[in-house]
Write a structure and sequence with these properties.
32% of the residues lie in helices and 28% in strands. It is built from seven helices and eleven strands. Helix 1 (44-63) runs antiparallel to helix 2 and helix 6 packs antiparallel against helix 7. The longest helix has 22 residues, at 69-90.
Length: 248
């Protein structure tokens, strides 16, 4: 039985095109889960996010047995960046396109998370929601240097400005996090279409209530609260089974 609990991507209420892409691959003790939130004119964001996700999945399939987990993710980020950047250079209508990229790689009960941009990874441990990733965004920088408070960050006019993306430059640096899965019951990946509308408390409440339907319920709640952006969610199992009794 695989780790995947739920995977959803939705247009949202306001957009005419879904520029998010989600994907996953599972093979025995190896699993990779990916969320990408594309940006660019016309359909370029959709192109960028799909290239990035496909690049990651292909890279993991090829290299999961010959590289360390962090080497796999570093290589996957580099490959995705190279492929998106190259496509944008060769196709004028996609010039300047890019995408966020957040992925969770599980192998032999170990978890490594990588991110570029402001799509996020959360884990649930002992009934608490913990944010693993740190946004590459203007608002995060303002928070870090004390210019604004956490309360001001919630509705900041520039909250969607990201400071790092895949494919916009010839190279990009990802951030990498190693997580002990033993005390983790659930892992959540999401685009900012979810977190811009739904609070962390609401995410935890829905996940704790019924894990099996939580990805769909999170998307629905985001749309009920405005749903201005595309919304993507992936939820999968950790190693701690305390909360698995909700899975039906």
């Amino acid at each position: 039985m695989g780790r995947l609990i739920g995977i959803e991507t939705d247009l949202g209420n306001k957009r005419t095109l879904n520029e998010d892409t989600v994907g996953y691959y599972e093979d025995g003790d190896t699993s990779i889960f990916v969320v990408a939130d594309g940006m660019g004119g016309h359909n370029a964001g959709e192109v960028a996010s799909k290239i990035a996700v496909d690049s990651v999945l292909d890279y993991v399939k090829i290299h999961s047995k010959d590289l360390t987990m962090e080497q796999v993710l570093e290589g996957a980020v580099d490959e995705a960046n190279k492929n998106v950047y190259k496509y944008a250079v060769l196709n004028e209508n996609c010039s300047g396109m890019g995408t966020t990229l957040t992925m969770a790689y599980v192998k032999n009960n170990s978890l490594v998370v990588a991110n570029v941009g402001d799509s996020r990874c959360y884990v649930v441990s002992k009934g608490q929601l913990i944010k693993v990733t740190k946004d590459h965004s203007l608002v995060q920088e303002l928070l870090d240097n004390g210019t604004i408070s956490a309360e001001e960050a919630v509705n900041h006019p520039n909250k969607n400005v990201i400071t790092r993306a895949v494919g916009t430059k010839i190279s990009v640096k990802g951030d990498y996090y190693t997580v002990d899965l033993q005390n983790i019951s659930i892992v959540i990946l999401c685009s900012d279409g979810l977190t811009n509308e739904v609070t962390e408390e609401e995410i935890l409440t829905i996940v704790n209530d019924d894990i099996s339907n939580s990805s769909r319920r999170l998307v629905e709640l985001s749309k009920e609260k405005g749903g201005k952006d595309n919304i993507s969610v992936i939820i999968f199992k950790g190693e701690c089974t305390d909360d698995w009794n909700h899975i039906r």
